[in-house]
Design goal:
Elements (H helix, E strand, L loop, with lengths): L8 H17 L4 E6 L2 E7 L8 E5 L2 E7 L1 H21 L7 H18 L6 E7 L8 E5 L5 E4 L2 E4 L3 H11 L6 H13 L18 E7 L7 E4 L1 H8 L14
Helix pairs in contact: 4-5
């Protein structure tokens, strides 16, 4: 009679964590940072159909790296939760903190109770009426939550980008400077996380959005086409030549 195979709980958790980290590290990086007018989101993403950055509610946005189908499930669940809470109570009751807590519970349950953890890392960001009221919450695959300040980098070479941003980022950066800083750091990471020289990222290879503090009610706005090319000081090679209105 063969003996049953035993794996300690500690080893199971370690294996799950290593599996999720490797999946996340294979993804292209995303940078979220504060700038003078709100919060900026920049991702290397040539797809115009599959978004890494999305609006959740009036003042709240979502950015993610990892497996698209998994973080898309989380995004949809967040939109539904925000809509239900805003409809049942008041729009002001929908906060980034409440959404981050809900995501933390979901990710923690998936990590501990299922065989395969989600290979995702997400940021829930809420823009405030002033910079010190802005909120950035970083959530990892196991449900851990970090309250970040200033900037966040996820996926790919996140540690390398975070180190560079710590030296270059400062309070009240204008939008143009913030976009160029984020894109420059993403370009330092060669495609596929392999060796090679830094690249030049063009508007067609980028997904950029902001939570604009000065916009009425719905703060989320995508920056594409000509407007993005203008901020980068380059030619517009995207399909959306006109870009989105200010």
């Amino acid at each position: 009679m063969s003996m049953p195979f035993y794996v300690s709980p500690e080893q199971v958790i370690k294996d799950k964590a290593d599996y999720a980290r490797k999946g996340i590290a294979r993804g292209r990086s995303v940078v979220v940072m504060q700038y003078a007018g709100g919060l900026l989101f920049v991702a290397e993403n040539p797809s115009r159909a599959l978004h890494k950055i999305s609006e959740i509610y009036d003042r709240i946005a979502f950015a993610a790296v990892g497996k698209y189908n998994e973080f898309e499930n989380l995004r949809v669940a967040g939109v539904r939760l925000a809509d239900l809470r805003g409809y049942s109570y008041d729009r002001r009751d929908v906060t980034g903190r409440s959404l981050a807590n809900a995501y933390a519970q979901t990710l923690g349950t998936i990590f501990t109770e299922t065989q395969k953890p989600y290979e995702v890392e997400i940021v829930v960001a809420e823009v405030g009426d002033s910079p010190h009221e802005d909120q950035l919450y970083r959530l990892t695959f196991d449900g851990s939550v970090g309250d970040e300040h200033g900037f966040v980098a996820m996926g790919g070479q996140a540690d390398q980008i975070t180190t560079a941003l710590a030296d270059a980022w400062h309070d009240a950066m204008p939008l143009e400077e913030a976009v160029r800083l984020a894109v420059d750091q993403l370009a330092q990471t060669p495609a596929g996380n392999g060796g090679g020289e830094p690249r030049t990222l063009t508007p067609a290879q980028l997904e950029v959005a902001v939570l604009d503090r000065d916009r009425p009610r719905r703060k989320f706005r995508r920056i594409t086409g000509g407007r993005l090319a203008e901020l980068l000081g380059t030619e517009d090679d995207s399909d959306d030549a006109a870009g989105e209105p200010e």
